[in-house]
Structure prediction request, 232 residues.
Amino acid sequence: MKKIVVLSGKSLLAVVVMGGLFGFLAYAADEKTDAKGDLAPLEIKLPQPSLVGTPLDYWSERLEVTFKKRPPFMAPKGVTNVALGKSVTASAKPTLGKLEMITDGDKEAKDESLVELPEGTQYVQIDLGAPHEIYAIVVWHFHAGERVYFDVICRTADDPDFTQNVTTLYNNDHDNTSKLGAGTDKEYIDNYEGRLIDAKGTKARYVRLYSNGNTTDDKNHYLEVEVYGRPL
Prediction:
């Protein structure tokens, strides 16, 4: 004969609460597993390594020094370079190259691939055409020789004038020389891997990248900028 146990009052409430808690924990565990399962290494096509210039003669306590290759960056499956072929504007007219070269997919260390902006704090801005969920931004300034570019700042926004939903993703202007706020990120030596900036799923339409000269001259250079994300 089956034994039936009848619960009432606090005992019944405890069973209900505990059952709900276990159900919630199981759901959360499943969600976490699913989220991990949706991630994959970001496929970034790298240019050929090319170091033919004079070795870098620069040191700063804020300089990041590493001899390791960049580890794979994990992002949701299906994320692609949504900046490819998109419109580019800038704070000044290029003195070398054309702005559309910054999103043309060519990041090789060639003079004909290089875009140069004049001295001072300058920026390039990419219009993704619509709001996107952004996971990574990779920028190649120059990698034919060792250089450090100063006041590298990366921001996103919802509008071209950068007044709405402005988010700063990277800022190594430690002393606020460029008057955009002091940053705590490291200076770095440009190389063929480019600089990958973790955008953490930021939602925006426009991406803007600043710089303020480099260790070789006062000019600002770009080979390519890639923005990895997906439409909202």
